[in-house]
Amino acid sequence: MLLRTKNLLVISVGVSIFTVLFVIGGIYTFTTSYKNDLRLQTQMAGELMRLTITHEMEEGNPEHIRPYLKELKHIPGFKLAHLVPAESVIKQFEIDTSTYEPAEALEKKVFATGKNADEIIADGETPIFHLAIPYIAQQECLQCHNAEKNDVLGAVSLEIDMGQQRKAMLSSLTNMLVLFLFFGVIITIALRKLMAPIISTAKEIKLAFGKAQQGDFSVRLEKRSNDEIGDIAEQTNHMMQLLENSLGKISKEIESLHDTRDDDRHNILKHTVDVVHNMVTSTHFKKTIENDRDLDEVYARLSHELVNRFNIQRFSIYEVSNSNNRMQLMLSQGLPEGAELWCNREITIDCDACRAKRTADIVSSTKEDGICNSFSGNIVQQNEKLLHSCIPIILSGSVGGVLQLVFTEKEAEEVKEQQATVAYFLEEAAPVIESKRLMQSLKDASMRDPMTNLYNRRFLEGYLDTLVASVERQKTGIGILMCDVDLFKQVNDTYGHETGDEVLIKVSEILKQSVRASDMIIRYGGEEFLALLVGADETKTLEVAERVRTEMEDHAFSTTSGPLKKTISVGASLYPQDSDSFWECVKFADVALYQAKETGRNKSLRYTKDMWKEEDKES
Asked: Could you tell me what percentage of the chain is helix, strand and coil, using 3-state DSSP and rounding each to the nearest 5?
């Protein structure tokens, strides 16, 4: 309800209630006062009658009473005036009762109590005031009456028409009511004039704050009075000026940003607050991930934020390798059992198949259905239609990763509201991701052989504790293969180091093809390679060893002098069957390799205790 309406309602109801109360109070007061005055006047008239009757009786002219009573009836307002003798008087003087008005209930009450009594009779058109006064026996009355002093000898009864008095009362009340209503109108006009500045200022304040919520602080209030209302107007104007110089400027700058959404322009202040909040929370997120150990922790924390802060239940995080044009899935959430990606596998071998990577812009199927041909979410999950939004992660001016959000049509509006904030988080996280990727790359470079891209011995030394702990926890073992190219020095001496490098690269490829993805190939030094077969038993270990040997034996290298055939020798051992020391088992595999070379090369041998002579142990 508007303040103006409330003001009118309060004034109207107040005046109406006060008028009703005034009328009720006036009627009650006038009626009470009128009855008291009427009672007093009638009582005075009755006393005069009683005194007159007493005087006539003392003079010996009792018959003069009747004419006197008749004359009283002609007085305006008098309806009845008569004398009612008591029963004792009637008996003593044998009075003919037919010549007197019979005693009514009021007179009988006076006889019984010896006190005045009155009543209002409302049977006719106008009410009648009826008063009865007792005629008390005095000392002089005892000369004629057989009575005791203070006995009631009779009652003087008067009836007066109240019509004129009532008209006078109603006329007075009407005049006072008109005067009061006139006064109420004056009060109403005065109150409205007094409330006008308050109402107008309140409306302007409402307008000012309504505009302020939209980022417009230009509204100013008019000072209409020099009291508190005027002070409120001045203080509000001062506050609006401060907001215009601070938040207003910020709002306009944010409104000018290219990423301000159309649906936010109607409330730029709210958008400003949201932007500032997003900046603060994303900055806190950045500070947190800066202290994370590696990229796995960063992606895990980002995943936690997506699920718990943004309520997004399906997504994938990809890393882009621009050097080999590939994308690698780092983390995913919400995929159905058995599914690997929300997209076609093509993007993992040709990252340009990803539209977000190719355009370096947000790609969303909420704007255009089927915008990216690589999205296969509706094939992976067919029970309801899925949409997607892919946000590129920009690293050093190019796309270094992609965050893919997958959602249903019911979730689309919520995801749309959260998407801008998610983008802020990614912008803040991008420098940290890039830094940690660089550190990871440098770390990998220091732990990999640059020619074969295999892990080196330094990596094994750092990773060994984790590997051994995993094997002990799973109660399995490790098959260890020590491999060495036979007569490799001859290749370098005869064909050159370039051919030698080709041989080593091919050996690394044969080894990687011969083992599982969970196994590990290490370039141990020179032409020596170490293969660690996690969970493999003796049979499997020897099977892989022989596969490596035969693959190498069957391969022909191309050189300027013609085809070149090379062989490889392999020594095998098992941890912890052969020893509870991993490095001792590596030594046993090396001993078996030495035995293979000593006994003709191009062999794969399992270590046995008789291969290690006592002098070898001492050395």
From this structure: 55, 20, 25
- Reduced to 3 states (helix: H, G, I; strand: E, B; else coil), residue 354 is coil
Contacts of 618 (CB under 8 A, 6+ apart): none
Partners of residue 406 on adjacent β-strands = 388
How many beta carbons lie within 10 A of that of residue 35, not counting itself?
Answer: 15
The listed CATH number (3.30.450.20, 2.40.50.140, 1.10.230.10, 3.50.50.60) that belongs to domain 3-161? 3.30.450.20
Which CATH class for the 276-443 domain?
A: alpha beta
Residue 155 to residue 114: CA distance in whole angstroms: 9
What is the second-level CATH architecture of the domain 455-618?
A: 2-Layer Sandwich (3.30)
Residues 249-272: pLDDT tens digits?
666 666 555 454 444 445 666 666
Q: What is the pLDDT of residues 326-360, one digit of tens each?
A: 899 999 999 988 888 999 989 988 999 999 999 99
- Residue 119: count of CB within 10 angstroms of its CB: 15
The domains of the chain are located at: 3-161, 276-443, 455-618
Please work out, in degrees rounded to the nearest 5, the angle formed at the alpha carbon of residue 243 by the alpha carbons of 237 and 248: 125
What is the distance between the alpha carbons of residues 237 and 245, in angstroms, rounded to a whole number?
Answer: 12
Domains 276-443 and 455-618 share a fold: no
Contact by Cβ (8 Å): 173, 27: yes
Its sign, for the CA torsion 542, 482, 564, 516, is positive
Provide DSSP, 496-513. -HHHHHHHHHHHHHHHHH
| C-alpha of 547 from chain center | 65
pTM of the model: 0.49
Report pLDDT digits (tens) over 452-486. Answer: 889 888 888 888 888 888 888 888 999 999 999 99
**Sheet containing 398-408, strands listed edge to edge, beginning at the edge strand earlier in sequence:** 326-333, 315-321, 398-408, 386-395, 363-364
Q: In this structure, are strands 604-606 and 568-575 parallel, antiparallel, or unpaired?
A: parallel
CA distance 19 to 32: 20
Residues forming a β-bridge with 484 = 528, 569
